[in-house]
């Protein structure tokens, strides 16, 4: 039975299994299923090298189970996405905030620090710990640009 014809509940039985995914462009990918998107039917796989990849649902032709789910792999997959960011002391956070403000100013963005929040051009806010993932805005263009800039910031 084709992937697109399977019921969502049947697709969820693949979670934590080692599978071989065949795509419409005749490529084959093998990995452990971390999750399946119920809307797009995309599959998130973990390769043996610990890399996560998403295979878009519309490209999936067939999924073959190679190994059934086991408790060890379930625990490994669940631990993979747990937050590994250390707790930061107030001193470390303040130093990071100052570096981010300086970096944004150096790149000619209007920046205001108001308490723990950094405001960029009154369009985006950066919350502690002042990383690319702690940016908040409704404007995807600004969000994307500031996140790329923060990822490129020297340490």
From TrEMBL:
All copies of domain AD, residue ranges: 62-155
Organism taxonomic ancestry: Eukaryota, Metazoa, Chordata, Tunicata, Ascidiacea
Record-linked InterPro entries: AD (IPR047574), Gemin6 (IPR009422), Gemin6_C (IPR046856), Gemin6_Sm-like_dom (IPR046857)
One Pfam family in the UniProt entry: Gemin6_C
The protein, known as: AD domain-containing protein
Recorded superkingdom: Eukaryota
